[in-house]
Amino acid sequence: MSEAINKAVLESTQIAIMEQLPETGVPARSPLAHQQQTASRTAPENPGVYLWESALKTHLALRGDANNADFANGVEAATGLALPEVLQSNHNNEWALSWIAPDEWLLTGPGDQALAMEMSLREQLGGHYAVINVGGGQTLVRLAGPRARSVLMKSCPYDVHDRNFPVGKVVNTVLGKSQATLRRVGDDEWELVVRRSFADYIWRWLVDASQEYRLSLEQPTQGASKNRAGRLQASPVEN
Amino acid sequence: MFYIYCPYCGEHREEEEFHPKGQAHLSRPTDPDACSDEEWGDYLYFRDNPRGLHHEIWVHAIGCRKFFNATRDTQSYEILETYRMGDAPRVTHFTDTQKS
Ligand SMILES: [Zn+2]
Q1: What is the structure's pLDDT at A26?
Q2: What is the pTM of this model?
Q3: Distance between CA atoms of A78 and A90, rounded to whole angstroms?
Q4: What ipTM is given for this predicted complex?
Q5: Is residue A52 part of a domain?
Q6: Which InterPro entries does the entry mention (chain B) (predicted)?
Q7: Ligand 1: distance of its center to the CA of B7 in Å?
Q8: To which CATH superfamily is domain B1-27+48-92 assigned?
Q9: Min CA distance, A181 vs chain B (Å)?
């Protein structure tokens, strides 16, 4: 792993970069590992909500000026993704890049690629910028299913209706008595970035809020949550 | 429900995402060593407390986490405008319709 650290980049940036994945013998533990172990595995029939953790992914915070071509082009060269506009996100098969603030973006992707991606960014970026590995401080939670939006409507003050929250939009807002960054990844699927210390609280909140819609703690199989047309007829009040 | 417009996110957001941070447009004495104790004390400790129009700093704490300015009527709580850091306020006195 440590061969990935490029000496030239280290010297030119004078930044201490290290492999943050534990070496052999030390298992990595996600903030929600204890929930995964104790969760009931009996999925209800025809679940309305699916909830699962997208554990131990790479989380890199990027800071820089979008008007600085060295920064914007460098991000695109390293990730293959253009810097998204305000409250938007761009993604490819592996990586997702979300707008967080006018000078901040969050890059998430495969858990074993953090060091390689950080090195690649530092090779490509120029000017005044920052790349910070924040993977230890937060995790990703996925919420899917025909009633996923109903769960969010109960949980946050933000308007998650289609007209205000199309697929691809990213919003950091209040969730329960904590906060989360919501990204709509599909018609019926959402990704939540939650702080490590609040992950347990938010998980329990979502589990509780999902009970009435028949909650499955498994990732849905392909096509399970695609039946959108049927939902629209079944619950006209929400649309 | 009380919505505040964040000039960085470019949309109205629920008030609980924001925190007020006091009077805006305070400038630090350019040469602290040369200013009097009174000038320094004014800058450090004394704030306006007007009845009516007030320019103040807010932060979109549970959002983009950026600080911005707001012009607010302290009598009615009405926010007349929000604008980015470094910008000048457009509303500097009440128009007849706004006067409470
Ligand atoms: Zn904002």
Answers
A1: 84
A2: 0.89
A3: 14
A4: 0.89
A5: yes
A6: SoxD, SoxD_sf
A7: 7
A8: Folate-binding superfamily (3.30.2270.10)
A9: 8
Q: How many domains does chain A have?
A: 1
- Reduced DSSP (H G I as helix, E B as strand, rest coil) percent helix, strand, coil of chain B, to 5: 10, 35, 55
Instruction: Report the separation in Å between the CA atom of A66 and the middle of ligand 1, taken as the mean of its atom positions.
Output: 17
What is the C-alpha separation between B23 and B21, in angstroms, rounded?
Answer: 7
The residue ranking higher by pLDDT, B54 or A39, is: B54
Chain B contacts to A (CB-CB under 8 A) = 8-11, 13-14, 16-17, 62-66
Question: Can you give the residue range of the structural domain that contains A123?
Answer: 32-216
Over residues B63-73, the pLDDT tens digits come to: 999 999 999 99
For position A85, which CATH number holds?
A: 3.30.1360.120
Is the CB of A179 inside 8 Å of chain B's CB atoms?
yes
Distance from residue A87's CA to the centre of ligand 1 (Å): 9
Given a contact cutoff of 8 angstroms between Cβ atoms, the answer to whether A145 and A44 are in contact is no
Q: Is residue A227 situated within a structural domain?
A: no
DSSP conformation class of A23: -
Tell me, yes or no, whether A221 lies in a domain: no
CB contact under 8 A, A158 and B14: yes
